[in-house]
Amino acid sequence: MIIQNMKILNKVTFAAVLVGLSFTQLSAQKAKAKPAAKAKPIIFAVINDGKTVEPVAYVENGKLVQPVSGGEEEAKISLFHKNYYKPGPAYRLIFGGANAGTVTVKTSDPKAECSANMAEVTIASTRAKLKGNVMALATNVVATKKGSGVRRLPTAAERKEIEALVRSELIKQNVDQSAAKVLKYQNLTAVDVDSDGTAELVGSFWVETGSKSRALLFFIADKADGKYSFGYTEFENVEQENVMSGDISDVDTGVYHERLLDVFDFDNDGVAEAFTYVQSFEGAGFNAYRREGGKWVKSFEGSNYHCGY
Questions:
Q1: pTM of the complete model beyond 0.85
Q2: Dihedral over Cα of 245, 246, 252, 254: its sign
Q3: Do the domain assignments include residue 20?
Q4: What does DSSP assign to residue 76?
Q5: In a domain, 155, yes or no
Q6: Which of 106, 123, 231, 237 has its CA 20 to 30 A from that of 292?
Q7: CA angle in degrees (0–180, nearest 5) for 82-84-88
Q8: Distance from C-alpha of 298 to C-alpha of 267, rounded to nearest angstrom
Q9: Which domain holds residue 128?
Q10: In Å, how far from its chain's centre is CA 272?
Q11: How many CA atoms lie within 13 A of 103 on its CB side?
Q12: CA gap 148, 10 in Å, rounded
């Protein structure tokens, strides 16, 4: 009787073990079924004198896609930090469309009030001197085409030619001729998007159209037959009443102006796209432009929320 009871007990114990093993295996299978999301190829803006990065776009199947924004739920932002902001691994610094050093994450905080999906970084580069309107890109995208590496100030002749085009465009946009004579600019940069030895010029100009109004002009200019012409322009009138701070002088510092980040051939077609940055009071806007049929078209428009003004 005791032996029979022992046999029964052993069978029950063995069955329990099997159930336990099955449960453990099932749990393990479930755990394996939900791996952490793999980090996608991504492009960052390198801003604030090279001290900060924020996401511009994911690269998916040769296209730019809006990444996680700082205004999304905390879980998404935390996962983004886990995938992209782990201290140590370095991103490639893109300057003039070519590799120019490394960008290494120092620290980040997914709960930061005004920089939830941004990170503080350090730059290692012998060529790129990032300050003010001289910004750059950082990426983990694998590039098979070597960029030109050209990024410089325009020559005196290039500047003179461009300023004539800018004045003509402003007058075309009904800016008073006297105002158009006094040109101001955020930046004017020469790059070479297709490595043909001829520079494209990307610029952000503005004029005072009144004590409480400004006219802004962003453009990409191409050279053909020895002369420059605009391949793309974006014009905007800004009135003080429409400035969130209520002070038009904030626009003069760069708010609302579209400025060059850099150029980068992320899709490896031999012609780099131009990436730009638009500062606002509640975050930043990011645009990308590609050359099509001799003109430039906006191929991507994204944004990153920071915090309320």
A1: yes
A2: positive
A3: no
A4: H
A5: yes
A6: 237
A7: 95
A8: 15
A9: 42-305
A10: 14
A11: 31
A12: 76
Size of the chain, expressed as the number of residues it contains: 309
Q: Does some domain include residue 29?
A: no
Using the structure block, give the residue that is written with the tokens 């990426």.
Answer: 139
Chain position carrying tokens 């449960």: 23
Q: Pick from 308, 164, 138, 299: which is nearest to 227 by CA?
A: 164
Residue written as token pair 């295996």: 25
Report the C-alpha gap between 246 and 215 in whole angstroms: 17
Distance, in Å, from the CA atom of 137 to the CA atom of 264, rounded to the nearest integer, reads 8
Is 1 domain-assigned?
no
Element at 252 (helix H, strand E): helix 249-252
Give the tokens for residue 37: 């999301």
Nearest by Cα to 301 from 138, 59, 64: 64
**Which residues have a Cβ under 8 Å from the Cβ of 230 and sit 6 or more positions away?**
165, 169, 219, 220, 221
* Domains identified in the chain, total number: 1
Instruction: Specify the amino acid at residue 23.
Output: F
Tens of pLDDT along the chain (309 residues) come to 433 443 333 443 434 433 343 434 434 444 443 344 568 999 999 999 999 999 999 999 999 999 999 999 999 999 999 999 988 778 999 999 999 999 999 999 999 989 999 999 999 999 999 999 999 999 999 988 889 999 999 999 999 999 999 999 999 999 999 999 999 999 999 999 999 999 999 999 999 999 999 999 999 999 999 999 999 999 999 999 999 999 999 999 999 999 999 999 999 999 999 999 999 999 999 999 999 988 999 999 999 999 866
Residue 187 parent element (H or E)? strand 184-191
Q: Which residues contact 234 (CB under 8 A, 6 or more apart)?
A: 217, 218, 219, 258
The DSSP letter of residue 306 is -
